[in-house]
Design a protein that fits this description.
This protein is mainly α and 152 residues long. The chain is built from 10 helices and no strands. It has 2 domains: 69 residues, Rna Polymerase Sigma Factor, Chain: A; 60 residues, Winged helix-like DNA-binding domain superfamily/Winged helix DNA-binding domain (Arc Repressor Mutant, subunit A, Orthogonal Bundle), CATH 1.10.10.10.
């Protein structure tokens, strides 16, 4: 009966839905455990419950744990945000990279095309080329070393 109103108070103080839901649970636990301390002569039950929810939310907001968790954000969110902000596009044709890769030995060319231009993982490329995974990784490393010679 009171959950929607209490959740509204909590979510105004703590905008993170998951944390607010946890705080709502903590609020009901505290209400249950502190029921003996409620005094009807001092105010209504609803007001007392709202104060518990508000105080728990403020305590959470001021806690070091909560402040630190807000500083540490998921990398997935940041990477997407940075990519959207910079609008960087990679075009291997304009860099002349494909021409450099074609000039490499055929075994390096095949591996680099699969991994870097067609999006294969190392394991998928190894399976497609019928090579051991270590050989694919070595060929990629050797091809990159060859390409570095063009840039240095």
């Amino acid at each position: 009966m009171y959950s929607a109103a209490l959740f509204g108070v909590i979510s105004r103080i703590i905008p993170n839905t998951e944390v607010a839901e946890d705080l709502l649970q903590e609020t009901f636990i505290k209400i249950w455990n502190s029921g003996a301390y409620y005094d009807s002569s001092k105010g209504r039950l609803f007001t007392w419950m709202m104060n518990i929810a508000r105080n728990l939310s403020i305590d959470k907001l001021r806690s070091k744990d909560f402040k630190n968790s807000n500083k540490n954000q998921d990398i997935e969110n940041n990477v997407d945000f940075i990519d959207a902000q910079r609008e960087v596009t990679f075009n291997a044709d304009t860099l002349g990279l494909k021409e450099m890769v074609v000039a490499l030995k055929p075994e390096y060319n095949d591996v680099l095309n699969m991994v870097y231009f067609r999006g294969y993982t190392h394991a998928e490329a190894a399976e497609e080329l019928n090579l051991p995974l270590g050989t694919v990784k070595t060929r990629i490393r050797m091809a990159i070393l060859e390409l570095r010679k063009h840039f240095n």
